[in-house]
Amino acid sequence: MGEQRETEWERRRRLAEIFGDVEPAVTSDERDDAPPQAGESASERWLKAQVPPHHGD
Question: Which of 31, 36, 41, 57 makes the best surface tag, with the fewest CB within 10 Å?
Fold first, then answer.
């Protein structure tokens, strides 16, 4: 018979209707949104990122 296969975007749309939207591959906490400052090491950036919001900058 003339069985048609669904395209990839049709399959994603159908699955999204059933299960909801898929989570992003990279979450906001995994992204490095702020550009590094000159002379700042990765450990310094990490340490600054760990400061609780109520402590300010």
Answer: 57
d(CA 2, CA 13): 22
Residue 35 φ/ψ, nearest 5 degrees = -70, 145
pLDDT band, residue 1 (cuts 50/70/90): low
The dihedral sign for the CA sequence 11, 13, 14, 18: positive
Tokens of 32: 């490095």
Non-local CB neighbours of 51 within 8 Å, separated by 6+ positions: 57
**Six-digit token string for 51:** 């400061």
CA 38 to CA 30: how far, in whole Å? 21
Mean pLDDT of the chain: 79
